[in-house]
């Protein structure tokens, strides 16, 4: 425990604990280690205290207590942030995971969602009415962190980013006040939380626009030998050039996982996977996806009708909690021959069986809004690259991080210069690349809503001194 936290007397802690509907965990309490754990096993921080918030009142109390005792604040929703900013040594950690409410209005096609909800929980509730909103592609991700960073996934080419579908939010500010933010109320704050990370307050409720999706969709992976990577990537590029917004295909280079639809003799061997998804009519989708299914000579083709909720969870097992993770991303406005060559070059040297080079085709509706429509600025790219470097042995840390950084640097000449804030692995850095042309405006919002930088354990925008 730090000097600052050791000065907080037990009476003050007991009074604070007694004011909560949730619970206060100290380092020696049962459940402390479980509550401080996050998805990336490289993160091992020990907060001074953990407040497991049951509702808005607990969030307000925790913010007030932290300010009174000069404690840094970290905020945990789903705990998926790659840099591990949900937890910090000697901070007051606000664990929002008990706040799990999802209230769907099927007539208005909206959902009111608390910040402890993860994506499969949101999908479970909305799909009961054949509805969904664009979210990420790992269903154990928290809705809060995903949204605050922008949020994209299988529905984004058709329906835009997660933040493009945010109607309003309730936010606890640095003053410990609850405010409502929307296009009509506290517009600057609403603009800032749509891609500006957790810089401006703690969101206690998100209101999303929903769309008719599923419950059955045309989707599935097509698996090719890595030796055919050039043919597959060129075919992927050609398909993407004319694909309608209903169609989304992602290309992934990795070792074949032991999935039942992949022949056993290919398990553990390097492959190229085309993950396909169609958001519209199933028969139309069959016709639209046929050209990508005709590329090369695949090992396996599992494209077919699948439950939307199942497809959303299909790849969770490839990125389990407890692996060590270091990620990097780039955005590209086209896929060049040089990019294809570099993908293949680094595909040959992937450092671990868990690591993958993911190349999603995005764009579509994501690019239809102006750069300054939301704090999230990246409205100018068609492809992204996400280096999902994963491993389990701490002795491989140096090797895996070095490979990721080297490939990221090798791809930089082809890239737009923008990166996805949710995929920045370092605690600091890349703010300009993540927030782009909107950075200065974010500073103005920060100056108004958090001038003392109380909320700094995030992809931080520093206020003007």
TrEMBL record:
Signal peptide: none annotated. Its cofactor is FAD. PANTHER family: BINDING OXIDOREDUCTASE, PUTATIVE (AFU_ORTHOLOGUE AFUA_1G17690)-RELATED, FAD-BINDING PCMH-TYPE DOMAIN-CONTAINING PROTEIN. Belongs to the oxygen-dependent FAD-linked oxidoreductase family. This is FAD-binding oxidoreductase. Residues 43-213 form the FAD-binding PCMH-type domain. One of its GO terms (molecular function) is oxidoreductase activity. Gene3D superfamilies: 3.30.465.10, 3.40.462.20, Uridine Diphospho-n-acetylenolpyruvylglucosamine Reductase, domain 2. It holds the Pfam family BBE. PROSITE patterns: FAD_PCMH (PS51387), OX2_COVAL_FAD (PS00862). Keywords: FAD, Flavoprotein, Oxidoreductase.
């Amino acid at each position: 425990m730090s000097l600052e936290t050791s000065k907080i007397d037990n009476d003050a802690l007991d009074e604070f604990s007694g004011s909560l509907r949730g619970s206060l965990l100290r380092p020696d309490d049962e459940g402390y280690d479980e509550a401080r754990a996050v998805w990336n096993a490289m993160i091992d921080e020990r907060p001074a205290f953990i407040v497991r918030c049951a509702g808005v009142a607990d969030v307000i109390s925790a913010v007030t207590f932290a300010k009174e005792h000069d404690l840094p604040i970290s905020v945990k929703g789903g705990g998926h942030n790659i840099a591990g900013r949900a937890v910090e040594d000697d901070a007051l950690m606000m664990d929002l995971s008990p706040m799990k409410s999802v209230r769907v209005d099927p007539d208005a096609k909206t959902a009111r969602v608390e910040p402890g909800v993860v994506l499969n929980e949101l999908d479970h509730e909305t799909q009961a009415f054949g509805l969904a909103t664009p979210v990420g592609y790992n269903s154990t991700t928290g809705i809060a962190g995903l949204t605050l960073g922008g949020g994209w996934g299988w529905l984004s080419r058709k329906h835009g980013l997660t933040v493009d579908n945010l109607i309003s939010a309730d936010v606890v500010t640095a003053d410990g006040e609850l405010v409502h933010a929307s296009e009509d109320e506290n517009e600057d704050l609403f603009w800032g939380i749509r891609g500006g990370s957790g810089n401006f307050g703690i969101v206690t409720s998100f209101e999303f626009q929903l769309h008719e999706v599923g419950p059955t969709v045309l989707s599935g992976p097509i698996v090719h030998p890595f030796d055919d990577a050039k043919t597959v990537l060129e075919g992927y590029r050609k398909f993407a050039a004319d694909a309608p917004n209903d169609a989304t295909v992602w290309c992934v280079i990795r070792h074949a996982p032991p999935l039942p639809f992949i022949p056993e003799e290919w398990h553990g061997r390097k492959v190229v996977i085309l993950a396909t998804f169609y958001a519209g009519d199933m028969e139309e989708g069959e016709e639209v996806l046929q050209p990508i299914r005709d590329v090369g000579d695949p090992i396996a083709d599992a494209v077919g009708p699948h439950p939307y909720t199942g497809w959303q969870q299909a790849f969770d097992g490839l990125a389990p909690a407890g692996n060590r993770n270091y990620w990097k991303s780039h955005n590209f406005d086209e896929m060049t021959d040089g990019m294809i060559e570099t993908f293949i070059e680094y595909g040959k040297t992937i450092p671990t069986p868990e690591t993958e080079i993911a190349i999603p085709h995005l764009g579509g509706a994501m690019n239809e809004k102006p750069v300054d429509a939301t704090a999230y600025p990246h409205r100018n790219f068609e492809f992204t690259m996400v280096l999902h470097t994963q491993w389990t042995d701490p002795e491989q840390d140096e090797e895996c991080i070095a490979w990721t950084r080297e490939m990221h640097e090798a791809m930089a000449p082809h890239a737009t210069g923008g990166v996805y804030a949710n995929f920045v692995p370092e605690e600091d850095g890349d703010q300009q690349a993540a927030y782009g042309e909107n950075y200065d405006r974010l500073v103005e919002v920060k100056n108004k809503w958090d001038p003392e930088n109380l909320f700094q354990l995030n992809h931080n925008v520093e206020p003007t001194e």
